[in-house]
Structure to design on (163 residues):
């Protein structure tokens, strides 16, 4: 019985690695590219939905690396998402506080990766009375993320909306 349980545990631990190893590539789409430039236009104000999207963003980063692309990602927080990047969570509904803290942890982990930059729109943050000092560390306050989107697109970034 112990051997059966040990075998099942080993198989369970190996399955995620096997699934990842068998993940198809994107060679046709990324042919000739060295760097993957994405601007994540994040407006989603629902914490649980943002957590799910951050998982996909993390996977996208890892997929780039797996396929030989250097990730270069900009996160532009605007709209309701601005409320979720404040250090203090007092302005949130009590049921959203734990999820917001989880978001902060996920964003901090992403910021530790190479090629990640995060910005917040001052137009959006002023709705929540937030300044630079109120944002989680590593998120840079900018005047207008619409200008950021325009500028980054002119630099070759692809904008992907997260709403």
């Amino acid at each position: 019985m112990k051997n059966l349980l040990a075998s099942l545990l080993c198989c369970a631990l190996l399955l995620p690695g096997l699934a990842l190893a068998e993940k198809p590539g994107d060679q046709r789409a990324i042919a000739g590219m060295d760097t993957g430039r994405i601007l994540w236009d994040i407006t989603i104000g629902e914490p649980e939905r943002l957590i799910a999207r951050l998982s996909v963003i993390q996977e996208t980063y890892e997929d780039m690396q797996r396929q030989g692309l250097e990730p270069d990602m900009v996160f532009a927080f605007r709209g309701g998402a601005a409320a979720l990047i404040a250090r203090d969570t007092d302005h949130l509904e009590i049921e959203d506080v734990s999820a917001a803290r989880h978001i902060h942890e996920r964003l901090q982990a992403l910021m530790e990766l190479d090629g990640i930059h995060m910005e917040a729109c001052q137009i959006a943050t002023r709705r929540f009375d937030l300044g630079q000092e109120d944002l989680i560390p590593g998120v840079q306050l900018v005047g207008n993320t619409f200008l950021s989107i325009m500028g980054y697109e002119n630099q070759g970034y692809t904008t992907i909306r997260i709403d």
About this structure: The mean pLDDT is 90. The domain at 30-162 is CATH 3.40.1260.10 (Hypothetical Protein Ychn; Chain: A,).
